[in-house]
Amino acid sequence: MKPVFEKIVGQESVKKLLAHALQQRAYSHAYLFEGPTGLGKEALAREFAAAILCPSENPPCHTCHSCHQVAAGTHPELRIIQPEDPEKDTSVSVEVIRTMIKDIYLKPYQGDWKVYIIPRAEILTFQAQNALLKTLEEPPDHAVIMLTSSQPEKLLPTVLSRCQKANFRPVKRERIEKWLQEMYNLPQKQAYALAAYANGTPDRAVKMLESESHRQQIQLFLTLTDTLSEGRLSPLLEAGEFLQQDKQKTLEVLSMWQAWIRDLQVISLGGEESLLIHQDQLERLTQQSARLTTRGYPQAQAILEEAREDLINYGNLAFVSEMVLVNLHKCLMPGT
Ligand SMILES: [Zn+2]
Q1: Which of the two residues, 139 and 252, has the higher pLDDT score?
Q2: 91 sits in which H/E element
Q3: How far is the CA of 67 from the centre of ligand 1 (A)?
Q4: CA of 50 to the centre of ligand 1 (A)
Q5: What CA–CA distance (Å, rounded) separates 248 from 149?
Q6: Which of 170, 204, 223, 237 could be bridged to 198 by S-S, CB 3.0 to 4.6 A?
């Protein structure tokens, strides 16, 4: 039998829980998918919804009318609860929940079930949560409600206690690597590097893979490491300007640096190729390593860690980005 929910990597215990419910066609009235962002909570909620609504024997079949409707976002019995104006509103109002409640008590029009997904449930106002509570206490038999949240502590304890919890956890690197190879047909070395960047969050790897700007970012980053190893400070600062686009990007580049320096350390210690994160960049790493001061590596890691904290806490983006490069240059170039 084909495994269910294969689109989502990891989260075996959650998948097991849901697969069991599917097998029995017996669902909790409310689920809470909780855990850090980027682990596929909403994607799995949609897959589970597709499975509940799919009439085939091995749901979700991805081939029937119902599954197509779910994929196209047009299934009449699947509602995604969002702010009234998702572009502007940062919370889900009580009115939105009241409309949902009116709808939930109507019998399904197609099939036996109605499914409601509330992504990022922490953005429900307290009033909205209270309104939802009554329905969670006495839901109609045909309804399944799924909440997803990375900040469940912002939900009322009474809401939490009425949901069956499904905990999402960071995914092991090896698992992400294998999944990237299978799902995206990636060569092993590239899958390995992406899985390392993903740092437990498969979404990060997928975003990098799918976005052109991420590919450019990697190219720019590689150029930056070359410029650093050639010891030219002002071209380095110029090349480093892409670090200053926004805080999130800069944090990403900092973790790219940390992975890179780690690889340089592995090379300088004569470690095996299989220990490298950037196995596809072995030649580049070896050349750079020959030019850099190996004893500066631990200090370089400390500089990067400090910059990360500065940036998260209060740091001025342009200043931190520039200082990182100046300091890396200082501690990694021989004779500076
Ligand atoms: Zn189907």
Answers
A1: 139
A2: none
A3: 4
A4: 7
A5: 21
A6: 204
Neighbours of 196 (CB within 10 A): 20
Asked which of 111, 138, 167 is the last residue of a domain, the reply is: 167
What is the 70 CA–ligand 1 centroid distance (Å)? 9
| Residues 136-178 pLDDT 10s | 988 999 999 999 999 999 999 999 999 999 999 999 999 999 9
Instruction: Write out the two tokens for 314.
Output: 């209060």
The domain of 137 spans 12-167
Residue 105 C-alpha to ligand 1 middle, in angstroms?
24
Q: Do 18 and 159 reside in the same domain of the chain?
A: yes
pTM for this structure? 0.69
7 found inside a domain? no
Domain count, the chain: 2
Q: Are residues 112 and 52 in the same domain?
A: yes
Cα-to-centroid distance, 78 and ligand 1 (Å): 14
Nearest of 235, 198, 221 to residue 284 by alpha carbon: 221
CA 201 to chain centre: 5
CA nearest 277: which of 198, 182, 221?
198
> Does 163 lie in the same domain as 50?
yes
